[in-house]
Amino acid sequence: RRRPPCRREKHDLTMSDSLASATAAGWVAGTLEISVTFPFEYIKTQMQLQQEASALFAGKDRFRSPFHCAAATVRERGVLGLYRGGLSWAIFGGPRSAVRFGTFETLTAASQRRGMHQRLGTPTADTINGFAAGMAEAALCQTPNQVIAIKMIHDQSPRGPRQYEGLVHCVACIWRAEGVAGYFQGVGPAVTKGAATNAIRFLGFGQLKRLAQGPAGADGTPPPPLATWQAMLCGGIAGAVSAVATQPIDTVKANMMGIDGGRYRSAFHCTAELVRAGGLRVLMNGVGPRVCRVFIEVGLQFSLYEYVGRALDRAFGSSSKTN
Q1: Integer Cα distance of 289 and 266 in angstroms
Q2: What is the mean pLDDT of residues 180-188?
Q3: CA angle 248, 33, 205 (to 5 degrees)
């Protein structure tokens, strides 16, 4: 006998709408923010790649500071020089945010259904879900994206060979030289960094968001959503903390993805070579512009994600997205 529709079917439809909303919101947020923040990424990467262990180390011709890097690049190549490799980020910017937020929303919904938030507490659940979302983002999107972008940036360094004519040429050169594996150079530190940064960001944003919203009403009414400036500030602070905490991993990842990254046998070998040649301090190269970029990036992503998500929920009638 045919069973009548049950409440689970309605719930599944609502969850599907929520996931679509989360994915679309993440896509829009990621695409918009990278157009604003990429010059910081360019400068950060150039500073990270200035390692005495590198065959392309420029010695006295190296960039002396982030400001010198920006000024020299603009003087030689114009403002668009600061966007070298940026097209790769623009292409992958939407998908990586969609994967990040979509995975997090999916895991959060699953963990809530299984009572993990009640057993472990929301902060712990957010950390675990953020860690997994970061791994998915890094493995599926960030590694090939950054391999392409970092090689193009390294190519434009003071001692760079100037071998890439553009994005398509760079992608073709990597394919001819190393095949598919070439797009996944440095995947180990990339996944580790992505997991750690997202765990910190989702935990930090969740904690700051709950602090800003205040408790639910006495009748169980949920607190109001964050104002745009509140979401941006909460996301920015969480992002800045994650940038400082993971900078050494990010520096190792950048050098493994550079033009001469093939000389490093592993992340441990790369770390040892960088430290041997320049000391522990080189692992923090570029931390200043990275903190600036990530503060803006994560602040914009979380605020746009909250805003776009609510707009999509209103447009499509989904009520499952929680505050």
Answers
A1: 26
A2: 94
A3: 65
pTM over 0.85: no
Q: How many CB atoms are closer than 10 A to CB 68?
A: 13
Confidence of residue 175 (pLDDT cuts 50, 70, 90): very high
**Residue 238 CA, distance from chain mean position:** 13
Give Cβ neighbours of residue 94 (< 8 Å, ≥ 6 apart): 26, 27, 28, 30, 31
Residue entry with tokens 């960039």: 63
DSSP letter assigned to residue 217: P
Which pLDDT belongs to residue 323? 44
Side-chain half-sphere CA neighbours of 85 within 13 A: 27
Q: pLDDT of 133-152, one tens digit each?
A: 888 888 888 899 999 999 99
Residues 6+ away with beta carbon under 8 Å from 64: none
Instruction: At 180, list the tokens.
Output: 């598919």
Which DSSP symbol is given to 186? Answer: T
Closest residue by Cα to residue 47 from 272, 189, 247: 247
Which of 73-77, 101-105, 201-205 is predicted most confidently? 73-77
DSSP 166: S
193's tokens: 């960094």
Q: How far is Cα 278 from Cα 132, in angstroms, rounded to an integer?
A: 33
The mean of the pLDDT values for the chain is 85
CA distance 142 to 187: 9
User: Which amino acid is present at 228?
Assistant: T
